[in-house]
Every structure is written in structure tokens, then in C-alpha cells.
Amino acid sequence: MTERQIRIFGDPVLKTVSDPIRPTDDVTGLVADLLDTVKIPGRAGVAAPQIGVNQRAFSYNVDGQIGYIINPVLVELSGEPELVDEGCLSVPGFYFERLRYPFARVTGVDLDGNPVELSGDGVMAQALQHETDHLDGKLYIEGLEKGLRREAMTAIRNSDWF
Fold first, then answer.
1. Which residues pair with 66 in a beta bridge?
2. Residue 132: CB partners within 8 Å, gap ≥ 6?
3. Which H or E run includes 118?
4. Quick check: is 131 catalytic?
5. Quick check: 45 and 34 in contact, CB under 8 A?
6. Where in 16-162 does DSSP place strands (E)?
7. Are 56 and 134 in contact (CB under 8 A)?
8. Distance from C-alpha of 127 to C-alpha of 152, rounded to nearest angstrom
9. Is 16 helix (H, G, I), strand (E, B) or coil?
């Protein structure tokens, strides 16, 4: 299909809880667009709301592994949360430290309705948590420590793209 433009902080779709995808929904084009959009170097994941679609699906590109999941549910987080440097395509040019669990697991389905399970640590754990948050209408900056969040919002408001 095609690489889609990324929606930027302030777009209402990024604050909206995504609708589940029904078995009767044809999301073949959406999945193709998510995969094409995440293939660009430096992208670990793209959630459907980031390309303007209010449906529960995301793609990932971690350690050379590219894929997607439909209707993901975060079913496991483990380990002691640790500070990680995190950025977001929808908040371009900014990276802030926030707490993430070192291991995450999601379950969902593929285009044929077959069960899919994704899990990992490090960048994969971070991506699974980050993209699932997008589907719940949350941006990563919402998880920042209060003082850092205030600084982040000031920096974002002063950015060229805001």
C-alpha cells in the first residue's frame, strides 16, 4: 500500500481510545499501510491512531523483525520498572526518560483471525507498552514524572511544529 503521514501531538485521534477490529472488518489495507510506515529506519512501532485510524492495530520494527498485531491486549508486564529514554513519532524531536517494565507480552490476532503473541524485553518490551498506550489514547509523555512532564510540555509548546 503506502507510507502514511504520522499524526502529531494535538491531533484528537491520538487522545481517542481505539475501537476493536471486528472479524468482519477488512483491515488488509490498514495493516499494509502500518507495515509500510514502520519500515522506515529508526521506527520501532506505529499504531493505527498515529496514521489517523481509530482502530486497535499496530506494527513493529524491532531488531530486524517487522510485523503487526490486531486487537492487542497487554497481558503481562514483569520486572522492576526502569527509566528508559523514549521518543515518539507523534512528538517529533523529543526524548524523555520514563518508567517502563523490562518485559512485556501482548496477545491478539492476525488478518486471518489466528492468535498472535508478541513478547520481549528491552526495546521490544518498550514498543509493546508504547504502542498499546497509543491504542488506549495515551501518549508516552503522560507517563513522565510530574516535573519532567511540565518541562516536556513547555518544550513541545515551544517547538517549531506545535
1. 61
2. 58, 72, 74, 106
3. strand 115-121
4. yes
5. no
6. 45-47, 57-62, 65-78, 82-88, 91-100, 103-109, 115-121
7. no
8. 20
9. coil
**Pairwise CA distance, residues 102 & 83, whole Å:** 10
Q: Which helix (DSSP H) or strand (DSSP E) does residue 91 occupy?
A: strand 91-100
**Dist CA 102 CA 82 (whole Å):** 7
Answer yes or no: is pLDDT of 109 > 70.
yes
Whole-model pTM? 0.95
43-102, pLDDT tens digit by residue? 999 999 999 999 999 999 999 999 999 999 999 999 999 999 999 999 999 999 999 999
**CA neighbor of 19 nearest in space, from 89, 70, 68, 59:** 70
Rounded Cα distance between 146 and 47, Å, is 25
Residues paired with residue 65 on neighbouring β-strands, in sequence order: 62
Catalytic one of 3, 76, 131, 151? 131
> Could you tell me how many residues make up the chain?
162
Nearest CA to 49 out of 130, 103, 113, 152 is that of 130
Of 8, 2, 1, 4, the C-alpha closest to 88 is: 8
Strands 115-121 and 65-78: unpaired
**Dist CA 59 CA 18 (whole Å):** 15
